């Protein structure tokens, strides 16, 4: 054997094995010798060793390993094995035994071996290590991959993909709440013409080891997208598909670009593709992985954490990464013990607290399925619902099981419903209610069913009683409280009597979508509860209080709630209706602001102060405290009320009862406090600015704004008068023709003219409005010191005069101008350019959202989407642009411009912001926008004889179509 020495590969000399004590040249095993110090240079290797690593000779082996003994080991295992060996040598310097790992062969074949070595002292090289290598099977639990299979997998991967030996199988994912198919997982299966069916454990680890797994994963995603596109084109139902990524995918390719480009190729909506990542991938703590996953989520893809709970750092992963769903490891269900059930229940509860959806795989029995339904697991997967099959087989199995396929528009609805379900000892039920009054149970817990049975009802009885008017006395009350909760967006309480039982119920409208309401409800039979028995005369006491007082409340400081038990006249809080209000301080502030007379507000808030009120009652010799203040009634008149507060219970959980009644009081203004004429004039001016509905403004002699009424500021969308003070109309740039207004105002200021009924156009929050304006001079000591004016919105006046009919120029969905209004705007901008050389740009933006949106969601959803798009344009085009919706989801923007670059950059920014819409009201969407820009001073326009607005518009549309 020979060994290269020196700095080049061509330098060789023959090794005299006599330098190495006890070494025979023809050992019957893989054998090598390495120096005993860094860099552990390779000194010798026998023929068996050369063949094991697929090298031609020692020179080839030396080049392959760079002459270093540890480079025999594959890179993934190298650092670990080196650390293990050095750690063992530190304890026993004479040698090491049974270090195991993958070998780094020249042809990238998988080899797994056991390495042992002993230390020997030599004269020529000092300490060296005699090492032997014994090839062994890859130690995967339950899986032994034959060497021939490994070699065939590596050699024939491309052929297997091309000839479809590798196929995509689909395993169903079932919505727990409905039993419908709500998704599928795509899994690779290899059916080899020579070997037969290969399990994933036979080829996936092999492909990972030789870094070819990304080619398999790319093929799977391509097949998934191709299949989804084919079904969309054939108008067949589809469902989201999850696919798996290996950690090596992130090393071998740009994962985001790979997924996004494949999706775009087949025009598949992003929400139909879910990315599954195992814990081991995220445990790598790789910046590349984190950035790729963050980018995917930002662009609307869901990230699913697979095999959750199988690793050692599950909670750290949830802390460091944001995922949309966790799949609990099926190992929890294999040992279906009380402990495993408790763990699953706790993990699902924790996930919901974090806003993460849940799926449990490995469901094999009805017992598994019932348990997961009881604890509110959102989705289930396992052989109980179907094994992985080709798509046709999976869908046929779903039909045989008589399961439906969940429509896209219901996905978010049921995700929200699953999040509501929590483990509790209290009664808990979830209704799906149509807005026409029909409802059905989606979920009930055991406590709810038992309490219901104790009252003598079945679940179907409740569904009928609350769905059919007149079937039950509680029908009207129930739907009244439902409507109250929809308005308040809070839990609402109500009481009713059922066969002599006092029932306290609390409900909350959790979500409203597609004309359906998701309603959570719980109830308690007060008559049978311990609290009810202790109170005894509950009914008599409450009836007595109701006969005396206007309002009766229970304040629970620990729960931070005010329960308005009774209200007469509807003067105090909660919309004037009984029910629970959360956040005591906020509720008191709202009542003070809306109902309590301004001079009495500080005293009212001090009396009700939650921090001190309990202690003040306890210190009172009468066991109660009271206060008088003025409260506005429904007619706007302030009358004196007295509020009395007492404690119902003390200790660590105090409850306070408050009651309010009308009392006699002094006049509103005490004697001797008559206002002066000067004070009264200031009061009138202040009241005028705040309350007039007309849009007045006033300016100095330089035409700079000095102030404006509140109505003026609100009309333009300003929060404060400071946003206009000191600025001219030209600074604000909100008129299509600034020159006409400037000349009018100069006549007012320098000639004393009064301007009346001057028509014009101004831009208001992205919309071009027609206005009529009046202006007159302001005099002081005979000199003009400024001007005052008022304007009226002609479009609004038109609607009022025509019985609130929409303007013929206004889009009824967005409030922007419509096509007719846009053409009028374009005419005025073109006239201003032709006459005064005021440059402008026309930007067209057209949505190319996936066509499946219109099939997935109803018209009300599409209107919400269009309004959201219009809102983005309003916020980001600036106050000096006119926006129109000219058809469907095509928008036009007209704006003054100082440079072409400015308008081009704005168009790109708007495109980016519109495409960043990935969900509407929680429902996923995939949107693509195209844009075009035409500039008023383009030679392409003025070289043509036709420079009319129709040509400018056609040119913009042609550019838009060309870009698509």
Describe the model:
It is a single chain. By secondary structure, the protein is α+β, with helices and mostly antiparallel strands. The protein has an eight-stranded mixed barrel, surrounded by five helices. A hairpin with a 5-residue loop joins strand 26 (638-649) and strand 27. The longest helix has 21 residues, at 213-233. The two termini are 67 Å apart.
Question: Would you summarize the structure shown here?
Answer:
This protein has 964 residues and is α+β, with helices and mostly antiparallel strands. Helix content is 38%, strand content 28%.
**Structure annotation, total helices:** 36
Helix content: 25-40%
Q: Per the principal axes of the C-alpha atoms, what is the gross shape?
A: globular
Model regions low in confidence, pLDDT < 50 over at least 5 residues: 1-14, 530-538, 666-675
Please count the beta strands (DSSP E, at least 2 residues each): 38
Radius of gyration: 39 Å
Neighbour order of strands in the largest sheet: 8-9-11-12-13-14-15-16
End-to-end Cα distance, whole Å, is: 67 Å
Percent of residues in β-strands: 25-35%
Q: Report the sheet with the most strands, covering strand number, pairing sense and barrel closure.
A: 8 strands, mixed, barrel
Q: In terms of structural class, how would the helical and strand content be classed?
A: alpha+beta
Q: Tell me, rounded to a whole number, the average pLDDT.
A: 84
């Amino acid at each position: 054997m020979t060994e290269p020495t020196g700095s080049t590969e061509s330098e060789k000399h023959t090794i005299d094995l006599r330098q190495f004590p006890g070494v025979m040249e023809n050992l019957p095993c893989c054998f090598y010798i390495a120096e005993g110090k860094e860099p552990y240079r390779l000194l010798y290797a026998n023929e068996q060793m050369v063949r094991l690593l697929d090298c031609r000779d020692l020179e080839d082996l030396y080049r392959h390993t760079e002459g270093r003994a540890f480079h025999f080991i594959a890179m993934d295992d190298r650092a670990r094995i080196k650390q293990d060996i050095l750690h063992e040598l530190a304890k026993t310097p004479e040698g090491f035994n049974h270090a195991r790992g993958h070998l780094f062969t020249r042809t990238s074949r998988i080899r797994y071996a056991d390495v042992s070595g002993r230390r020997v002292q030599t004269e020529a090289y000092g300490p060296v290590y005699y090492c032997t290598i014994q090839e062994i099977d890859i130690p995967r639990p339950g899986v032994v991959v034959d060497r021939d299979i490994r070699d065939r997998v590596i050699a024939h991967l491309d052929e297997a993909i091309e000839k479809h030996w590798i196929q995509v199988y689909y395993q169903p994912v079932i919505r727990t709440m409905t039993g419908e198919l709500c998704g599928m997982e795509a899994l690779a299966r290899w059916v080899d013409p020579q070997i037969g069916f290969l399990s994933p454990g036979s080829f996936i680890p092999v492909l990972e080891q030789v870094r070819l797994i990304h080619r398999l994963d790319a093929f799977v995603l391509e097949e998934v997208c191709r299949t989804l596109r084919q079904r969309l084109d054939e108008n067949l139902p589809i469902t989201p598909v999850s696919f798996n990524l290996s950690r090596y995918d992130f090393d071998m390719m740009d994962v985001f670009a790979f997924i996004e480009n494949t999706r775009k190729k087949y025009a598949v909506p992003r929400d139909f593709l879910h990315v599954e990542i195992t814990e081991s991938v995220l445990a790598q703590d790789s910046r590349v992985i984190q950035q790729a996953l963050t980018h995917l989520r930002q662009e609307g893809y869901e990230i699913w954490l697979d095999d959750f709970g199988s690793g050692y750092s599950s909670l750290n992963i949830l802390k460091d990464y944001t995922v949309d769903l966790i799949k609990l490891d099926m190992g929890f269900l294999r040992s279906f013990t009380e402990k495993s059930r408790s763990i699953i229940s706790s993990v699902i509860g924790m996930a919901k607290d974090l806003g993460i959806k849940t799926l449990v795989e490995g469901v094999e029995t009805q017992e598994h399925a019932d348990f997961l339904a009881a604890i509110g697991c959102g989705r289930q997967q396992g052989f109980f619902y179907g094994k992985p099959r080709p798509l046709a087989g999976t869908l046929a199995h779903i039909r045989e099981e008589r399961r439906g396929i969940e429509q896209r528009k219901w996905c978010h609805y049921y995700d929200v419903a699953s999040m509501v379900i929590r483990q509790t000892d209290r009664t808990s039920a979830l209704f799906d209610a149509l807005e026409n009054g029909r409802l059905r149970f989606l979920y009930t817990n055991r406590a709810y069913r038992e309490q219901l049975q104790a009252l003598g009802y079945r679940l179907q009885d409740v569904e009928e009683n609350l769905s059919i008017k007149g079937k039950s006395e509680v029908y009207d009350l129930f739907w009244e409280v439902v409507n109250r909760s929809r308005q308040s967006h809070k839990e609402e309480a109500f009481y009713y009597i059922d066969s002599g039982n006092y029932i306290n119920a609390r409900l909350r409208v959790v979500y409203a979508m597609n004309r359906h309401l998701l309603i959570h409800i719980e109830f308690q039979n007060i008559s049978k509860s311990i609290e009810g028995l202790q109170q005894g005369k509950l009914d008599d006491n409450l009836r007595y209080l109701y006969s005396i007082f206007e309002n009766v409340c229970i304040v629970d400081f620990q729960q931070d709630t005010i329960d308005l038990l009774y209200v007469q006249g509807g003067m105090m809080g909660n919309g004037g209706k009984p029910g629970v209000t959360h956040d005591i301080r906020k509720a008191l502030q709202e009542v003070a602001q809306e109902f309590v007379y301004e001079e009495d507000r500080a005293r009212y808030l001090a009396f009700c102060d939650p921090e001190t009120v309990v202690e003040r009652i306890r210190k009172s010799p009468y066991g109660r405290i009271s206060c008088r203040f003025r409260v506005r009634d429904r007619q706007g008149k302030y009358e004196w009320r007295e509020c009395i507060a007492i404690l119902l219970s003390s200790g660590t959980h105090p409850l306070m009862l408050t009651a309010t009644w009308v009392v006699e009081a002094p006049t509103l203004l005490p004697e001797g406090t008559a206002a002066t004429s000067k004070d009264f004039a200031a009061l009138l001016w202040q009241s005028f600015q705040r309350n007039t509905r007309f849009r007045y403004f006033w300016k100095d002699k330089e035409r700079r704004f000095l102030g404006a009424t509140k109505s003026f500021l609100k009309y333009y969308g300003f929060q404060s008068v400071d946003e206009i003070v000191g600025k001219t109309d030209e600074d604000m740039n909100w008129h299509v023709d600034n020159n006409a207004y400037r000349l009018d105002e100069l006549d007012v200021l320098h000639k004393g003219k009064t301007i009346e009924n001057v028509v014009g156009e101004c831009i208001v929050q992205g919309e071009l409005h027609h206005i009529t304006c009046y202006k007159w001079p302001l005099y002081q000591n005979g000199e003009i010191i400024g001007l005052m004016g008022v304007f009226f919105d002609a479009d609004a006046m038109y609607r009022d005069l025509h019985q609130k009919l929409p303007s013929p120029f206004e889009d009824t969905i967005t409030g922007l101008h419509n096509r007719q209004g846009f053409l009028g705007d374009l005419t005025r901008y073109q006239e201003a350019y032709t006459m005064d050389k005021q440059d402008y740009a026309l930007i067209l933006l057209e949505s190319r959202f996936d066509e499946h949106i219109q099939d997935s969601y109803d018209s009300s959803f599409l209107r919400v989407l269009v309004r959201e798009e219009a809102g983005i344009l309003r916020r980001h085009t600036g106050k000096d642009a006119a926006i129109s919706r000219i058809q469907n989801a095509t928008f036009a923007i007209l704006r003054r411009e100082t440079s072409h670059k400015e308008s081009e950059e704005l168009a790109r920014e708007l495109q980016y912001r519109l495409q960043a819409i990935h969900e509407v009201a929680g429902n996923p969407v995939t949107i693509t926008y195209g844009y075009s820009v035409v500039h008023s001073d383009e030679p392409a326009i003025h070289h043509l004889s036709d420079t009319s607005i129709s040509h400018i518009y056609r040119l913009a549309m042609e550019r838009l179509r060309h870009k698509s």
